[in-house]
C-alpha cells in the first residue's frame, strides 16, 4: 500500500512511522522547505499527561500515559525520564493545593527534597509537587532524529512540495494542522523563549505556579532553557508581544533570578490547532484519514493518534475506538 | 424576568468566558448556569487584528447576549479603542468598561474610568463600568451617562467574596433605581447569594466557575444561588434576634426567660 502523509510536524512523522512499520510505502510531503517552523518546532516537549490534567480532560491522560515509552522505543536516547517538578512561591501555596487536588500521579516534596532534585533551586521554594513518571524530550532534536530514522526505513520526504505534485497513492493522511482548513479548528497562539545561561542547571521540566503567570521551563542541552508558553485565543503568527515577553521573563526570574542575566537566544511563536473541546481527532473521509487538533499536546498525544490512524487504514473490518468518541468524563449531559 | 437597559433577561447571572479548559466546556457551563449574557475580552486577541475571530465566533454561537469588555486596558485611550473595536466585532453598543489602575490588585483607575465612560456614552455606547464601591465615583459615572454600575466586591479573581458588606449595603441604598451588578471577587455560590440578598440586581463572574474542578457543576450551582438570593431578597428575610423563638408553640410550659 502506498500512503501519502501530508505534513512533517509531529503528527505527520509519527503517522509515517506507524504506517511504515506496518509495511506501507510512505511518502511525506511538507510544504515548508525543511523540518521546523511549525507548531511542533516551538513545543516544550514535555511528556506530562498527569500535570496536564489540571485543565485537560481524561483522554489526555489515557492517550498520553504511554507516550514516553513510545518515544523511548522509537528514538532511543531522546527521552529524559526525570519527572516534572512543580513549585510555587509561598504566597501562591494555594495553587499547589489546587493542582494537587485536580491531578494524580504526584507526591509532595519539601524543601530538602527540592534541593536534592534541583540543587540550583536551593532556598527558593519550600513546597512542591513531583510527578515522577513524567518525561521530556527536545522537540527539535527528536524531529531531526526521527527524520533520519524514517529515511533509513525507506520513507521518502518531499520538502517545499505542493502535495498535489506527487501522486499515485492508495491512501492519504492529512496532518497539516491549521493548514488543513478544517472549519472547526481554531488557533491558540503560544509564545516561547529560549534562554541561555550557564548560571542555572535543571534536570527536569520545572513548572512555576502563579495565579496569573504560570510558567514552565524545560532544560535543553548547552545551558539552554525553553521558557513557555502563552495561551492566546488567536491564530496570529506575528512576533512575540512585549507584554508576553515581560510575563515570561518575569516568571522565569521568579523561578531563578539568574535568568535575568541569560541571553535571549530565540523568541518564537507557534499556533496550536484545537477543536472546541481541545481534544484531538482521527477521522476518515473516503481514502483520506485526518489527524488534527493536537492543541498543546503534540508530542504527548501524536503516538496514540498515529496508531489509531494506522489501525483505521489497516484494519477495515474492526471498528477502531477513536479518542474523541470516548467518554468525556467531566462533561455532564 | 430581569430588565437590563430595556432588554428582558431570564437570568441575573452574567458569565465571563476566559480561562475555561476548553470552549466546549465553556458552552456546557453557559447552558448549565442559565445565563443570558456572557462577557468577552478583546484586548489580548488584538495583536493580529482579527486573528481571534475563531474564538469570537464560538462565543457568538453560544446564543446569549454578548457584553464585550475592555479587560487588560490600562489607559483611557486603550479602553476607548477596544470598545470601538468591540462594537464593530460583536455588533452591540454594550461595553463593560475596565480601566485598570494597579497592575497587582487590578483595581480600577476610577479617574480614567469616569473619563472613558464620558467619551463612550457620548459616542452612543451603553457603558457598564467596572468600579469600586465608592459612592462618589458612582455618582460621577452616572453623571457621565452610565445607566448601570458594576461595583467589585473584592479584587478580580481573588475569590474573597464580599469584603465590605457595609459599603455594598450603602451603595444599594444610595442608588435604589440604578441596576447594580456585582462584578469581580466572588468565589463561591454563597457569596453570590449573599450579595443578591442585599438587593443587587445581578452578578458577573468568571474565575470562580472557569477554574473550578468541574466548571459545569459550578455554573449550575451559581445559577441556583443567584436565583435563591434574589428570591430571598423579594420575600422578606427575618432580621436576626438574640432570643430563641420556637417554631412550634409551647403552650402549657411555664418557662419564660
Automatic annotation (TrEMBL), chain A:
One cellular component term (GO) for this entry is: cytoplasm
Could you tell me which pathway this protein works in? Cofactor biosynthesis; thiamine diphosphate biosynthesis
At the top level, the lineage of the source is Bacteria
EC numbers listed for it are 1.4.3.19
- GO molecular function terms noted in the UniProt entry: flavin adenine dinucleotide binding; glycine oxidase activity
Alphabetical GO biological process terms: thiamine biosynthetic process; thiamine diphosphate biosynthetic process
Domain spans labelled FAD dependent oxidoreductase = 2-312
What InterPro entries does this protein map onto?
A: FAD-dep_OxRdtase, FAD/NAD-bd_sf, Gly_oxidase_ThiO
Signal peptide extent: none
* Name of one Pfam family that matches: DAO
Could you list this entry's UniProt keywords, alphabetically sorted: Oxidoreductase, Thiamine biosynthesis
* UniProt cross-references to PANTHER family, sorted A to Z: GLYCINE OXIDASE, SARCOSINE DEHYDROGENASE-RELATED
Question: Would you tell me the protein name for this molecule?
Answer: Glycine oxidase ThiO
What is the species of this protein? Answer: Mesorhizobium tamadayense
Organism classification, top ranks? Bacteria, Pseudomonadati, Pseudomonadota, Alphaproteobacteria, Hyphomicrobiales
What gene makes this protein? Answer: thiO
UniProtKB/TrEMBL annotation, chain B:
Q: Which GO terms describe its molecular function?
A: thiazole synthase activity
Q: Where is the active site?
A: 96 (schiff-base intermediate with dxp)
**Major location category of this protein:** cytoplasm
Keyword annotations from UniProtKB, A to Z: Cytoplasm, Schiff base, Thiamine biosynthesis, Transferase
Q: Where in the cell is it found?
A: Cytoplasm
Residues in domain Thiazole synthase ThiG? 5-249
Renumbered to this chain, the signal peptide range is none
Q: Which domain of life is it from?
A: Bacteria
Q: Name one GO cellular component term.
A: cytoplasm
Enumerate the catalysed reactions.
[ThiS sulfur-carrier protein]-C-terminal-Gly-aminoethanethioate + 2-iminoacetate + 1-deoxy-D-xylulose 5-phosphate = [ThiS sulfur-carrier protein]-C-terminal Gly-Gly + 2-[(2R,5Z)-2-carboxy-4-methylthiazol-5(2H)-ylidene]ethyl phosphate + 2 H2O + H(+)
Family matches, as Pfam families = ThiG
Give the EC number. Answer: 2.8.1.10
Report the pathway entry: Cofactor biosynthesis; thiamine diphosphate biosynthesis
BP-aspect Gene Ontology terms: thiamine diphosphate biosynthetic process
- Describe the function of this protein: Catalyzes the rearrangement of 1-deoxy-D-xylulose 5-phosphate (DXP) to produce the thiazole phosphate moiety of thiamine. Sulfur is provided by the thiocarboxylate moiety of the carrier protein ThiS. In vitro, sulfur can be provided by H(2)S.
What does the subunit section of this Swiss-Prot or TrEMBL entry state?
Answer: Homotetramer. Forms heterodimers with either ThiH or ThiS.
Return the PANTHER family for the record. Answer: THIAZOLE SYNTHASE
What the record says about family reads:
Belongs to the ThiG family.
Q: What is this protein called?
A: Thiazole synthase
